[in-house]
Amino acid sequence: MQFSRKALVRLQPNRADPIGFLKQLLDPLIAVGVLFLIYELFEIKVRSIDGILAALAFSLGWPGQIPFRRVQPGLLREVILRWVTTIALLTLIGLVTRTTDNFQPQVLHAWFIATPLLQYGLHRLSPFIVARTPLSGRQASCVIVGAGPLGRELARAISLDPFEIVRIAAYFDDRNNERLGCQDEEDGTVTPFGRLSDVARYVQDHQIQRIYIALPMASQPRILALLDALRDTTASIYFAPDIFVHDLIQARVETIGGMPVVAVCESPFFGPEAFVKRFSDIVLAVIAIALTTPIMLGVAIAVATTSPGPILFRQRRYGLDGREIEVWKFRSMRTQDDGAVIRQATREDARITNVGRWIRKTSLDELPQFFNVLQGRMSVVGPRPHAVAHNEMFRSLIKGYMVRHKVKPGITGWAQVNGARGETATVDAMSRRIDLDLAYLRNWSLNLDLQILWGTVRLMVRDPNAY
Questions:
Q1: Residue 235 — very low, low, confident or very high, per pLDDT cuts 50/70/90?
Q2: Which among 137, 192, 190 has a CA at the least distance from the CA of 161?
Q3: SS3 sequence, 245-256?
Q4: pTM above the 0.70 mark?
Q5: For residues 115, 117, 118 and 119, what is the CA-based torsion angle, rounded to 10 degrees?
Q6: Are the CB atoms for 391 and 361 separated by under 8 Å?
Q7: DSSP states of 121-137 as a string?
């Protein structure tokens, strides 16, 4: 059984994790701090428009996604890529609003260069800085009750985190090595120190500060007996439930009337993230419409004059929470199917017009969907919406198909930039697309959206799956 290390980490609420919260703040705060520092060094008075620039830079960089507890391979490339993407968006906003002339070039150039250098430097130094701050705390000793797959995965998560303040002293389990699936030490397995009945005495004798219970939920009677025995200790007790056998989507802990509940399938756009997503959608949609209005007028004229029928193709799709929405596209076919049975477009499809073939290949037929974004029906980036008929066909064939509707559908998505665009004639082809859509939900960040947008622009020039 495979357990998700990411799920173990994401289940912790960010508000209770000071280092995790610091990771989210670090890069956007550096960008804002460096900007104001440069104004100070150049002895330039900060104006209200400079505050707007700082707010935009912060929102585009929030939340920071680069790991803060360790130095990962390719760190410099990651820092530069994220900063260049942010600068590109800020430049587009400046060009559209015609405000670029309000900033002195030497200030912007110094800001563009200094910010990624300082971000990279602090990420490199973070393992040494955080380890010497009160955030790291004093090391505590712990025991893990349960030496099965979940317990071993929890132990690996602890050992791989250089800032984890817990030292594992022992494991306890009533099951023998054969039942635990143990092979050898190199396989990441462990030999239990004792049985569950030995835990309380061991904790008292060795002054253990933490106890992690990683037993199957089927072991409830044993867990209750263990908790009763541990009442005579001062150790903190944590329960790692075996919910990780499920395919977790944005798992986190919430409370309802003071009662803790675990979300195992939730939208990534929750609280501040919902605001960031909607704000970025509006900004990107306004920029896209402003830049492509002449192109859309040209496409509309070409569609209207080369084949009979309406300029826009309106089709029913499933949107957020599975509710029906109407999606707009430039018409690219001679027929407009929107019934119970819809035949997907195929290569050399006779229904596609000459103009339609060109606008489909360049994705220009999708441009009217930026108006759908402003209407709140869609996002710029998200799982692509499927026709209602296709949804009804595949939802019963593919496990987790409808989970993609936990977010608004997008004009482009992670699946489209990873080769899963075009016809999905088989269940396997659709399954691959759904897997990529769910991966997007698990790993969403504003930076991921920007990477997808950049990948989409590249595919507009050349995409073998576009027809």
A1: confident
A2: 137
A3: HCCCECCEEEEE
A4: no
A5: 80
A6: no
A7: HHHHHHHHHHTTSGGG-
Tokens of 104: 């002195």
Neighbouring residues of 428: CB distance < 8 A, sequence distance ≥ 6: none
DSSP 323-340: -EEEEEEE--BSS---SS
32 to 20, 47, 276, 366: CA distances (angstroms): 20, 14, 17, 35
Give the Cα separation of 410 and 449 in Å (integer): 10
Contacts of 234 (CB under 8 A, 6+ apart): none
Q: Determine the average pLDDT of the residues in 188-214.
A: 82
- Torsion, CA 73, CA 74, CA 78, CA 80, rounded to 10: 140
Contact 352, 345 (CB under 8 A): yes
Q: What is the mean pLDDT of residues 47-76?
A: 74
Of 416, 412, 446, 414, nearest to 64 (Cα)? 446
Residues 6+ apart with CB under 8 A from 453: 284, 380, 381, 412
3-state secondary structure of 169: strand
What's the Cα-to-Cα distance from 114 to each of 105, 111, 302, rounded to whole Å?
14, 5, 47
Give the whole-angstrom CA distance, residue 419 versus residue 277.
Answer: 24
**Which run of H or E residues covers position 15?**
none
Whole-angstrom CA distances from 74 to 1, 32, 38, 81, 120 are: 31, 24, 28, 11, 11
Set out the domains of the chain in order of their start, with CATH numbers. 16-130 (no CATH), 138-263 (3.40.50.720), 272-461 (no CATH)
Amino acid making up residue 97: T
pLDDT score of 411 more than 60: yes
* Helix (H), strand (E) at residue 140: strand 140-145
Give CA–CA dist 132/136, Å, rounded: 7
If we measure between CA atoms, which residue out of 371, 354, 368, 363 comes closest to residue 421?
363
Bridge partners of residue 171, in order along the sequence: 144
Direct distance between the N- and C-terminal alpha carbons of the chain, in angstroms, rounded to an integer: 41
Looking at residue 298, its pLDDT comes to 93
